[in-house]
Write a structure and sequence with these properties.
27% helix, Udp-n-acetylmuramoylalanyl-d-glutamate--2,6- Diaminopimelate Ligase, Chain: A, domain 1, alpha/beta, Alpha-Beta Plaits
Length: 376
Amino acid sequence: MPTTAERIREALEKIAPLQYAEEWDNVGELIRGARDRVNRVLLTIDLTEPVLEEAVEQKVDMVVAYHPPIFKPLQRLGSMEPSERIILGATRAGLHVYSPHTALDAAIDGVNDWLADCLGSGDRRALVPVNGSVGSELCKIVTFCPEDSVDRIRDGLASVGAGTIGEYKRCSFEIDGTGTFHGSAKSSPKVGKSGKLERLSEKRLEMVCPRQSLPAAVRALASFHPYEEPPIEIYALEPLPIRETGAGRRIVLDRAISLRRAVELVKNRTDVRELKLAKARTRTRQHRTIGLCAGSGGSLLEDAIAQDCTLFVTGEMSHHDLLKAQAAGCTVLLAGHTDTERGYLPVLARRLASELGSETASFLISRRDRRPLRTV
């Protein structure tokens, strides 16, 4: 069965939902290619000029570049800057270009989980969890009414989409209470009399409601409510964080490991011969709570320190962040920016092939994708 670019985009979105990406990132489809059918896909960390040449030589139809080749807004396109030449070259070649970047970092079984797997078993969570209900924009709509009106109002609200939680509909909560009102001489209350303070037994009815359904929900509530002036309250709901998904990872190991053992495990995982070490001033011999972030982890250092990490594993970090970590009692291991990411590409290729099943696209790992630094 032939594979389309849309099917591969759907598979990538399933593996790394774009809603998990950082706000500053530029993820997803960056260049729409000329051909809808995709036979070969090239996976790379960076779409450099040598990698673009490789893509053309290998006659691929799509490039999945972990780092987005279009990151900052473009004001013009020419042939002076390498980044511009790459974009123009990919367009001329008719290539689709897609970047998952921080969405793939944050996702379960993504880059950070792959890196964390080498350290051993234990409790694992994101250093900064993402909000799980991004896009749903749920609110809560509340009213107060006589008991004999509750079912009618609940059904009316449910008919326009309120009260749906997962596979359950007509979800609501009721509380008994006493309501009061003092109508003016011009009022015409359906319960009680105007001109005097009235006390009535009422039900408080609460239901979740998608924000886009609120206008219809307010109208439905008013039409089914017996009062002349139906009381209506609307509350915005904060999205629920997903513990396991988000930026970085914090692992509390079942068994603490020594720094020497951590170095050995990270070397084996990243296939890096030498790591850089910034050892904390405190003499922590065994590490149980470990933070990590593939790529550049400086922005998550304070979160790792606040969550009692005594060891932080990442690709690169600034001089001043290293000093901050040392002073806070957190040892830092640096394995190289792309070296903490590149080993995931074969995993991504297998996952994409599994998602597509019997479809015919094949996945190649770039041979010309290289780290910019080497040891001399």
